[in-house]
Amino acid sequence: xxVAAGTLGLSVAxxxxxxxxxxxxxxxxxxxxxxxxxxxxxxxxxxxxxxxxAHYGLAxxxxxxxxxxxxxxxxxxxxxxxxRVVKTDCRLLSATSVGSAPSRVGTLSLHCEPEPVGATVFVxxxxxxxxxxxxxxxxxxxxxxxxxxxxxxxxxxxxxGFAGVSGPQHVDALRDDGTLLKFVANVSELAAPGEADxxxxxxQHRLCVSGEADRVPWxxxxxxxxxxxxxxxxxxxxxxxxxxxxxxxxxxxxxxLPSHIKKYCVCCGISVAATDQPxxxxxxxxxxxxxxxxxxxxxxxxxxxxxYYLAHDAKVPAATxxxxxxxxLCRDEFAAFGHVPPQLYVRISNRLIGDFVLTQNNLAxxxxxADSIAVGDWSLDEHMTGKYxxxxxxxxxxxxxxxxxxxxxxxxxxxxxxxxxxxxxxx
Length: 427
What we know:
Elements: H1 2-7, E1 13-15, H2 43-55, H3 67-80, E2 85-87, E3 92-98, E4 104-110, E5 117-118, H4 130-135, E6 140-141, H5 147-150, E7 185-186, E8 208-210, H6 230-239, E9 263-265, H7 289-312, H8 318-325, E10 328-329, E11 351-352, E12 372-377, E13 386-393, E14 396-402, E15 415-419
Helix pairs in contact: 2-3, 7-8
């Protein structure tokens, strides 16, 4: 957004709350994984991809750059667009509004600036709608709407089960003393199917993992307790020693990236033991900055602790321990942050109720829109929102997953135009 505005000759300042710019495209390591050579990139996306290629001495696109390369390309683009101010580690404190509801934002108070910052236009490009929330009278929502809100069959809470789930099923959800395993919730906390709730699909760090000799061995996280990973162990026992995304770490094959670079972006997994952990982001959308840092730390503990457990615990099969120890964190990425991406993958949070609301039914109906500002091409993709202990009779409770689905957007095809009206507050 800053590059686009600067290219138009506007006077632009960019403020980033993290110590590193680029969001998931750089600070979150996502560029190393998502995308592809076949995508129809134009405009700024094409520029970004060609700048990455130039870094590697190539005249071709590299849509999958390393994160430090992505950050450098973004900074090159900002400089070329004449963006006047680029400040990191700069959190939003408050907003002042002028005019009647919905208000026009007058100034923002930022902890890196001594005086409030004014502008003709503010672009809220945050993952949580921070300016939108601070304005105080702009309509937005979080969590899941009920089916009835927009007549969406995929909306609301869903019944736990194993639809689309890989790996072992019927894993015991309770410790021997009858208490819940860590990272598993009581199913009584789940709303009825189709009803609204505050659940958010799973967050995670898209860790940069390397199998090279200079990798950083899996560190033992502060406060590590092996008992916290009993669910992971039970999944290992039920699957013959593998644990889905945690142990499935092949050498990467990334289109365009020079083949001598051996890095892997850890992702997802719809399974009882996966790097997605839906039970850690409760309350995120409305949490304070300080509380959000606690949630981020909880994700780091779960992720790094899981890999440490797999690499070192004697209950893990020796072959699995040896395989996991072949990998570690990328030494040349995110060194200032313990080699963990500083940007947590916030897949969903606060959402503007726009002048036009995109729903399951109108997302690609029609696909082409007169006020299009971008093209999307992905399925209706909801990651897990919960891992629950579900009673199955005989006094047993098993871990079942809730929330995940992945149907196509329309008629087996996924592309759609994004209308400008969807990102404007309702008039």
